[in-house]
Design a protein that fits this description.
Blueprint: E1 6-7, E2 12-14, E3 20-25, E4 40-47, E5 52-59, E6 76-80, H1 90-94, E7 106-110, E8 122-123, H2 130-145, E9 155-159, H3 162-173, E10 180-184, H4 190-199, H5 212-218, H6 233-236, E11 240-241, H7 246-250, H8 254-260, E12 268-273, H9 277-292, E13 297-302, H10 311-330
Parallel strand pairs: 3-13, 6-7, 6-9, 9-10, 10-12, 12-13
Antiparallel strand pairs: 1-2, 2-3, 4-5, 5-7, 8-11
Length: 338
């Protein structure tokens, strides 16, 4: 049974169980220059899990270069992009998040193509281990190169669309690595829909035939991606199949993972619902599953969200929330009261 609720600014209601629900909030992005975040470093490195050179962008907090804090390490938030996007796609989003650099927090923006952040079971050519790429290749490179805190309490992961699904699945399949996980407007049925197709003796991802003009556009390279051989939509789509059985697909279904994960290790979950009616309903459904399982989480329902220009204020809130969770975890306090 829930205890008395504690009210906070901006419509937040936090129960004694640590379940936080928010009133519907508007998404209105102010005009803020990307430069406000400070320098963004682009890192190109060898990623053995996917057999290629890859890229991540990184934003360091202002305090990182303070000589008085030269020995300090900082918590890290991994931000996963959506389908059709890349690491640089975060620039326009974070430009509308004026408080993103106010925290002593490292932001890591990995590029992962249209991989859905899973280890593909059937591949043709190079390996397609995109979950291992995030948790092994990117994480280890960041922690070896920068003063990132190399333990669970100092890591969180979240993302939008495909990246929202990916952040939940990566976090729930590797709960020993992350204190908090999140999804904004997440495409949460991707693995379950793949399982349904496989149970009907189909393929997880059926082949798609494109009109000639569409195929030409899919092969057009985008120089802003910055990774040779990974600049077109065709190159950025893994070859093969992510799953070959319904069981493999269900092992990446966030609705199941939140039930199966070790309750003593489950990361704190943050969900943002908005965008289309379908995406909102998916976030609401997952929130109900978490509530029924008596797991602590935060759910925010927002107006709008279809226009990417509206996402900046959302990520102001998201980044601040993940930072607070990690700070509490690093102090050794209970983080479920967020």
């Amino acid at each position: 049974m829930m205890g008395p609720a504690e009210r906070h600014p901006a419509g937040w209601v936090t129960t004694a169980l640590g379940l936080s629900l928010a009133l519907t909030l508007p998404l209105v992005a102010p005009a803020v220059a990307w430069a406000q975040l400070g320098p963004v470093e682009t890192v190109v490195f060898d990623a053995p899990s996917v057999g290629r050179t890859m890229r991540y962008d990184i934003v360091l907090p202002a305090a990182y270069h303070d000589p008085a804090r030269a020995d300090d390490r900082f918590p890290t938030l991994y931000l996963l992009h959506g389908a059709g996007d890349h690491a640089g796609s975060w620039q326009s989003i974070l430009a509308g998040a004026p408080s993103a650099r106010d925290h002593d927090l490292i932001l890591v923006l990995p590029d992962a193509g249209d991989s859905h952040y899973v280890d593909w079971v059937r591949t043709y050519g190079e390996p397609e281990g995109w979950e291992r790429y995030i948790v092994d290749d990117v994480r280890r490179h960041v922690e070896a190169t920068y003063r990132a805190i190399p333990r669970r309490e100092g890591r969180a992961i979240t993302g939008y669309g495909m990246g929202g699904h990916g952040a939940l699945v990566v976090g729930l399949r590797n709960p020993e690595l992350f204190a908090a996980i999140g999804s904004q407007l997440g495409e949460l049925l991707w693995a379950r829909e793949a399982a349904d197709r496989l149970r009907l003796d189909g393929l997880a991802l059926p082949p798609v035939a494109y009109a000639p003009e569409v195929e030409t556009a899919r092969r057009r390279e985008d120089p802003s991606v910055g990774v040779p051989g990974f600049r077109s939509l065709v190159d950025r789509a893994p070859s093969g199949q992510p799953f070959t059985s319904a069981a493999e697909a269900f092992a990446h279904d966030p609705f199941r993972l939140v039930i199966l994960v070790d309750r003593n290790r489950v990361p704190l979950v943050q969900l943002d619902g908005g965008g289309t009616i379908q995406l909102l309903e998916l976030s609401q459904r997952l929130a109900r599953v978490l509530m029924d399982a008596d797991l602590p989480f935060v759910f925010t329902q927002r107006r709008g969200g279809r226009d990417r220009a509206e996402w900046g204020p959302m990520y102001d809130d998201v980044i601040a929330w993940h930072y607070r969770v990690m700070r509490r975890a690093l102090r050794g306090t209970d983080v479920t009261g967020q």
